[in-house]
Amino acid sequence: MKEKFTFFWKSHSPFSQWHKRSFNLNGMTFTCAEQAMMYGKAMLFGDHGIAQRILQTAEPREQKQLGRLVKNFDKAIWEQNCMQIVKEANRAKFTQHEDLLEALLKTAGTTIVEASPTDSIWGIGLAEDDPRASNRRQWKGTNWLGQVLTELREELMNLAE
């Protein structure tokens, strides 16, 4: 049986980290999942100054840039924690907005894929219209965001049963 995919890219998609939809997490309000992710990154490494600056901007591009400035960053520690940070942010985002949850649940039976030609970590390093995007073995990236969203969807579906 051929694997089916739900591709997304860019902030208009509810699956994007840059999709602007406020949600609450741990008593704080975030403008998008990117902000929660970068805030979580700063807090993981104890950089309270950058964490506060991330909270002060509503623009995902600026949040990402600030996240790159986190002091004492350790790639190995980040890689051990980043997917859980992203999953918690997305769980809050999707469970606090019925329309977003519905969109996520409609992807059942597919693997969610960030078809970003410029991101080979969180995405697949290919655009959706690239013929290689339909073959997991030909992806140029790890699709971490797609993995997180697919796992989250499965968890939420199991809770609903």
UniProtKB/TrEMBL annotation:
Q: What is the official name of this protein in its record? A: NADAR family protein
Can you give the residue ranges of the NADAR domain? 7-156
Q: Which organism encodes this protein?
A: Brevibacillus fluminis
**Pfam families in UniProt:** NADAR (PF08719)
InterPro entries membership: NADAR (IPR012816), YbiA-like_sf (IPR037238)
Q: Which reaction does it catalyse?
A: 5-amino-6-(5-phospho-D-ribosylamino)uracil + H2O = 5,6-diaminouracil + D-ribose 5-phosphate; 2,5-diamino-6-hydroxy-4-(5-phosphoribosylamino)-pyrimidine + H2O = 2,5,6-triamino-4-hydroxypyrimidine + D-ribose 5-phosphate
Kindly indicate where the leader peptide sits in this chain: none
Q: Which CDD domains match?
A: NADAR (cd15457)
